[in-house]
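Inverse folding, one chain.
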């Protein structure tokens, strides 16, 4: 439901801002509006639900899914403080969030859990793509 309503909201927002845009501009704007993060959230939740019988994997995937939804919240918080360099500050906060979770979990369990390794990597790639689309837009 979150992915469907989020996708609908992003789609309508793009249409309001770029009525006569091309497919390429639509795709770039979809990425810039955190569409990739939304799809990643849905994918991580889907995989985590399939792996409910493996609690260590499930809880780490759900954590990464939740973190993948943070960029809009970070963006609003940063914009309250400053209106300069918002995109790079949000990217930095996302990197810090992922690295903090990975570091704490790795320290506690004495090894990097695979779900945090590839889940965190996907979140960081998604955020980097969003940042690049925002500065190109």
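Residues assigned per position:
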């Amino acid at each position: 439901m979150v992915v469907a309503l989020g996708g609908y909201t992003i789609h309508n927002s793009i249409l309001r801002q770029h009525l006569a845009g091309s497919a390429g501009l639509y795709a770039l704007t979809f990425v810039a509006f955190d569409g990739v993060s939304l799809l990643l959230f849905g994918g991580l939740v889907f995989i985590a639900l399939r792996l409910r019988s493996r609690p260590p994997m499930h809880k780490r995937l759900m954590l990464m899914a939740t973190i993948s939804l943070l960029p809009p919240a970070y963006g609003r918080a940063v914009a309250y403080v400053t209106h300069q360099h918002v995109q790079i500050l949000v990217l930095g906060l996302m990197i810090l969030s992922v690295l903090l979770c990975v570091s704490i979990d790795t320290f506690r369990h004495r090894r990097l859990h695979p779900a945090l390794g590839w889940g965190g990597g996907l979140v960081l790639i998604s955020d980097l793509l969003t940042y690049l689309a925002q500065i190109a837009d």
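Residues 86-109 form the longest helix (24 residues). DSSP finds seven helices and no strands in the chain.
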